[in-house]
Amino acid sequence: MTARTRPDLDLLPAYVPGRSTPGAVKLASNEVADGPLPSVVAAITAAAAGINRYPDTGSTVLATALAARLAVDAAQVVVGNGSVSVCQQLVQATCADGDEVVFAWRSFEAYPILVRVVGAVPVTVPLTAEHGHDLPAMLAAITPRTRLVFVCNPNNPTGTVVRRAELERFLDAVPPEVLVVLDEAYTEFVRDPEVPDGVELARGRANVAVLRTFSKAYGLAGLRVGYTVAPVAVATAVRKVGVPFGVSGIAQAAAVASLDAADELMVRCAELVLERERVRDALVSAGYEVPVSEANFVWLPVGDGALALAQRCADAGVLVRAFAGDGVRVSTGTPAENDAFLAAAT
Ligand SMILES: *Cc1c(COP(=O)(O)O)cnc(C)c1O
């Protein structure tokens, strides 16, 4: 007989990473195509010389730099091993067995897994016909058991956004004891001026936290660094449930160097946004429905055609992300990569 594990985990789907095949064009995981900047590689190399020591468990230099940039108290910033890790800490810090977490569906596929691992209950609210968050329905889904609400803005995988007025209305109506987490993994790609900066929106609100990452616009997906900006009391609880030394010294140094190179990296984002628009225009011209995207990917809501479309792309050497029965998410790559995708899809 093997050791007994939690039977409820048998029901849990495994996180499905984007596919990776040597030589293929990889547009399945919303990574940026460019490698790290030389200044970031130099910081990584320098930090490598110190890996006989444990890292600073509080990521103090990075948290202080983030706090200064965002004009928040450093006590509000918690750095983690990727923002997924911080996301899990937010669930652990707010939920016990049977508590409820409300989020839109389809949205980031890590949410239901992280919620269930803690023993909490995911409460999903269908997206609107326009593939966006249905905030009034999410508000209506809040019960006395609700401890946390995720709003993914822009939403992964649909690229849709919630705008300032509707989000403020929502935040004003959520009970103050329920934490709202604005997951802004793609915020650097937003061009719609009506989309609020979550950190600004959270100022003065004791139940709103923002989640951000170095994995997307900052190009450090492989190093695993993300963070939350939260009210101090929430941040303190989030720190308590963190794994000690969870963020390596190399990752911390790379993140600090990337912040220093933010201007350069934002130029890359601007170029990517142009490509995103080019890809969307081409798809729309070819007859696809493609919601306006404010992230570094586009969403093709092809329903039952999802797996077949992804296979057609794979046959042409382009890996995209299919969600069976729902649609296909395609990350924006280099112009040549995007052309390869468009040739396969249109
Ligand atoms: C990619 C992504 C993240 C970032 O995850 P990391 O752990 O920081 O790499 C977080 N939230 C959403 C919605 C994402 O798509």
Automatic annotation (TrEMBL):
Any one Gene Ontology molecular-function term assigned to this protein's record: histidinol-phosphate transaminase activity
PROSITE patterns: AA_TRANSFER_CLASS_2
Keyword field: Aminotransferase, Pyridoxal phosphate, Transferase
All residue ranges annotated as the Aminotransferase class I/classII large domain in the record: 25-343
TM region(s), chain numbering: none
In-chain residues carrying the UniProt-annotated modification N6-(pyridoxal phosphate)lysine: 216
Reactions performed catalytically: an aromatic L-alpha-amino acid + 2-oxoglutarate = an aromatic oxo-acid + L-glutamate
Reported cofactor(s): pyridoxal 5'-phosphate
Highest taxon of the lineage: Bacteria
Entry's EC annotation: 2.6.1.57
Family: Belongs to the class-II pyridoxal-phosphate-dependent aminotransferase family.
Assembly notes: Homodimer.
NCBIfam families documented for this protein: hisC, PRK03321.1
Protein's job: Aminotransferase that catalyzes the conversion of aromatic amino acids and 2-oxoglutarate into corresponding aromatic oxo acids and L-glutamate.
Protein name per UniProt: Aromatic amino acid aminotransferase
